[in-house]
Amino acid sequence: MDQTADFSVTDDDGGALATLRGEWTGASMGSAGTDLAGQLANRKALKFDLSGVRRMDTAGAYALVRAAKGDIDPTRIRARPEMVRLLELVIGAAKLKPASKPPPRGFHEMTIRIGYGVVNLLRELFETMVFTGHLLVVLARSVANPRRVRWAACISLAERAGLDAVPIVATTSFFIGAVVGLLGANTLRQFGAEVFAVELIGIAVLREFNIIITAVLLAGRSASSFAAEIGSMKMNQEIDAMKVLGVDPFEALVFPRFAALLMTIPLLTFVATLAGLFGGMVITWSVLGLGPTFFLQRIVDNVGVTQFWIGMSKAPVMAAVIAGIGCRQGLEVGGDVESLGRRVTAAVVHAIFAIIMLDAAFALLYMELDL
């Protein structure tokens, strides 16, 4: 039986009569709808005979409505009742026009954007609290039962996210120490106090620059990596598969990354401290003529170990923030690549912002403690 859509158009006393045959569906209609529109282009008082149509779906009904340019009277259609109801539904839908809402302007637009920003901020705070609570539960569970910890994943991530960053951290810290030494030497020379450049280098490197440089580099290196890895798994529905299998993504993905940074950031901070002091020592030796022995002795006598421990005390907090932000942004990735790129960018930006804010908070705290 032929299933191809076909038609014929004839003229009678009441106007043009279009007789349709076959199956008017999206799969078998072909170009019949376009041909029918060409035949009915200049005709008025249209009538339709659909008694020969075996099947019709919304695509065929819409082709018929479009061929008649919406000028269809249901009373002038000869068809089965269910086909008439389908045509009435499509005719009504074709007449609907999307509501056009003028875009807000000026103060109104500003209030809308502020409102959306406040709502998004509250939502982010709530999601952050949920993430933190879940992570704390996993930490307590891992401490209570260390056999649940995936030590192989922790060691592998510690090597990839931490130890592989030793060269870039050491190089950057070396040049930061050298720059601080140059600035201190040039500035203090005006007052005849070049020797105090050693204390300037020691306090700046031991207290601030070692942890700041390390944390910022890992924010751009590890936070983005965590967000991209977990986000890709989220896009591929691997995390949903883990949940179906009864595996907690926080235990399998978040905790190993958290533990890896917690282990490696203190080590990287120590490396950054040595590299920064070495860079400052090279500058004071070459520019001011102060030898390494003199440099190290003044560091021990006038700077002290307290400054070193102040800088090292920030390392665990920075590790938790970097790992938490990177993993959380990865878990928030949607199903498209644009969401992945947006979340990776947000991970880096939020991590760097949190690092600067936390360092300022530590500075205020130690100032109140007179340290």
Shape: elongated
Distance between the termini: 94 Å
User: What oligomeric arrangement do these chains adopt?
Assistant: single chain
Number of helices: 13
Helix content: over 70%
- Structural domain tally: 2
According to DSSP, the number of beta strands is 4
Uncertain regions: pLDDT < 50 for 5+ in a row? none
Report the mean per-residue pLDDT as an integer: 84
The largest β sheet comes out as: 4 strands, mixed
Tell me what portion of residues adopts beta-strand conformation. 5-15%
> For the CA atoms, what is the radius of gyration?
36 Å
Order of helices and strands: EEHEHEHHHHHHHHHHH
Sheet with most strands: strand arrangement: 1-2-3-4
Q: What would you call the structural class?
A: alpha/beta
Describe this protein's structure.
The protein has 371 residues and is of the alpha/beta class. It has 2 domains: 6-95, STAS domain (Transcription Regulator spoIIAA); 149-368, no CATH class. 71% of the residues lie in helices and 8% in strands. It contains 13 helices and 4 strands. The protein has helices spanning 32-39, 58-67, 81-95, 106-144, 151-161, 166-188, 197-235, 238-244, 249-288, 292-303, 305-313, 315-331, 337-368; strands at residues 6-12, 15-24, 47-56, 77-78. The protein has a 4-stranded mixed β-sheet with strand order 1-2-3-4, covered by helices on one side. Helix 7 (197-235) packs antiparallel against helix 9 and helix 9 (249-288) packs across helix 12 (315-331). The mean pLDDT is 84.
